[in-house]
Amino acid sequence: MPGDAWQQFANLRLLLTYQIASPGKKLNFMGNELAQGREWSEGRELDWSSLQLHWHEGVQRCSRDLNRLYRDTPALYELDFSHEGFAWIDCHDADQSILSFLRRDRNGGSVLCAFNFTPVLRQGYRVGCPSAGHWRELFNSDSAYYSGSNQGNGAGIESQPQPWMGMPHSLVITLPPLSGIILQIA
């Protein structure tokens, strides 16, 4: 993986977040949950000693919390194989390398997922949302708890009545570098 240690670990946390948020069933290879550097082998145990380094411990925490979020958030799994469970917000922002989409559950609940695939902090980024109100950050792969740089939307964001990208409302968010965030209306 290219880049320095910060970029490599941020990219892995971004990948894990994108994987959990995307439709379909999940597959992870042994060792990914702690950012093991060498390929897993059935002939030896995982590199548990790597957890003594904060980067690896951060990825382990990120993996654990993403698994819990997936388990506890029906919008991430209920309609995995139905077109009602997924909607693009923006898949055309190639200039800034940002993707955003909604995941929905059977009861009309949704989460908004946004991903920044560059090492550039994006502040004041507008993204469409389906509902008016206060949106809170359920997950941020850039959290200091995961050994990230701790940029984000900690206090939450109020939607604005400005339609955007085919949605009736919009949010102005901070998208941390090389990260994924998951928002839900409070």
List the helices and strands and how they pair.
Elements: H1 5-21, H2 54-72, E1 86-93, E2 98-104, E3 110-116, E4 122-129, E5 134-140, E6 157-158, E7 169-175, E8 179-185
Antiparallel strand pairs: 1-2, 2-3, 3-8, 4-7, 5-6, 5-8
Helix pairs in contact: 1-2
Q: Radius of gyration from the CA trace?
A: 17 Å
Largest sheet at a glance?
6 strands, antiparallel
Going by helix content, strand content and strand pairing, the class is alpha+beta
How far is the first residue's CA from the last residue's CA?
37 Å
> What pattern of helices and strands is seen along the backbone?
HHEEEEEEEE
What is the helical fraction, as a range of percent? Answer: 10-25%
Contiguous low-pLDDT stretches (5 residues minimum) are none
| Shape category | globular
Kindly estimate the percentage of residues that lie in beta strands according to DSSP: 25-35%
Strand order of the largest sheet: 1-2-3-8-5-6
Summed over residues and divided by their number, the pLDDT gives a mean of 94
Helical region count?
Answer: 2
Number of strands: 8
